[in-house]
């Protein structure tokens, strides 16, 4: 399989509007990560635009876990927006710290609960796909392909990462790096080439974000 088959061919069956939506959401997603690296509160309004569009896109592509994470992103973006606004002296930029042991425990619990929740949703996916009717529907996980299984894992990783980011914890970038890297082949498999490139950019930006926040924390500590 060549690059054309991976990135171009799937779009031959898409409408111009579908391609525009994915590209538009990707641009705003990248802008959101950029603002996050800069510890700039605009990470949230740009992120909300991207996540709402992806809710629509991912639902139509059957990635329920990722669809859910973008609903969660939207809610957490509002929560994070409020927290950052309260903790920003100039109402734009914030200070960052490392997570406490208690927060790591909460993050671990959130990860496990997410695995259970998303797995349960996939269990009922045949019922959802059948327009919420049990007629001729067999519940179970038999229908999962490797993309769906990865989706369950990445959803849980991103949930924790988003929570740590709202708390302004440096560790949030570790979760973004891992999740973004895993999502690249998953999106190619699902025929979302533009989004897979976006996740490649996300992975690079997340590494830069981790280094930037870590450096910022050290400089603030010296002061």
TrEMBL record:
* Top-rank taxon, per record: Bacteria
Q: What is the predominant subcellular site recorded for this chain?
A: membrane
> What is the membrane topology here?
Multi-pass membrane protein
One Pfam entry for this protein is: NMN_transporter
Question: What job does this protein perform?
Answer: Required for nicotinamide riboside transport across the inner membrane.
Q: Please provide the record's keywords in A-Z order.
A: Cell membrane, Membrane, Transmembrane, Transmembrane helix, Transport
Where is it located? Cell membrane
- Could you identify this protein by its name? Nicotinamide riboside transporter PnuC
Protein family (similarity comment)? Belongs to the nicotinamide ribonucleoside (NR) uptake permease (TC 4.B.1) family.
- Species of provenance: Chryseobacterium tagetis
> Is the Kinase keyword given for this protein?
no
Transmembrane ranges, per UniProt, are: 15-35, 42-63, 69-85, 105-124, 146-166, 173-190, 196-213
